[in-house]
Amino acid sequence: MEWTKEALTELEQVPRFVRHMAKKAVEKAAKEEGIDSVTPEIVLKTKEKYFSLVGKEKEGGSRTTKLAVVRCHTVAEVCPGVGCLKAFTHRKLNFSEYGPDTEIIGFFTCGGCSGRRVSRLVEKLLDHGLDVVHLSSCMCMDDDDYPRCPFKTQIKKAIEAKGVKVVEGTHH
Q: Is 151 exposed, middle or buried (CB count within 10 Å of its CB: 0-12, 13-18, 19+)?
């Protein structure tokens, strides 16, 4: 399918890791509409269709708060994350300050000591409007049930350096 120069410029705005899928979706939408050449309008229309909920304000001007949870890679071997997710769903403990306009957009492990993947994943979530990162309870507790995270302070500072608020704890 033929693409106008302006449409290709618009496609360049899509993150590289999903650009191939986005291109296919745009071409499919163009074919469904009987269009032979992709224009910026069809790119934007397709983008709106697939990403209409991402980063949009709700009616009345309120904005969805978007958060992520970082978990200990070691603890994740035996913990499926139920406690963190239940606490969020029911807005308990460290999630009690959030209202219904809050969603989890990321739930991932640190990648192992020294938290090697946190900075990279937080950076990717910024494109999706990330506001807050919770360090899971397993990273914040200092007792016999969980191994103490020797890199918690480092991880927290790396996230804050990206302009994202950090909350220590989820469900304990």
A: middle
CA distance 35 to 3: 11
For strands 132-135 and 102-109, give the pairing: unpaired
pLDDT tens digits, one per residue of 82-95: 999 999 999 999 99
Is pLDDT of 144 > 90?
A: no
Closest CA to 170 of 133, 143, 142, 144: 133
Name the burial class of residue 134, with classes exposed (0-12), middle (13-18) and buried (19+) by CB atoms within 10 angstroms of its CB. buried
User: Strand, coil or helix: what is 105?
Assistant: strand
Least Cα distance to 70 among 158, 145, 161 occurs for 158
For 160-170, b/e burial (b = at least 16 CB within 10 A) is eeeebebbebb
Mean pLDDT of 17-38: 87
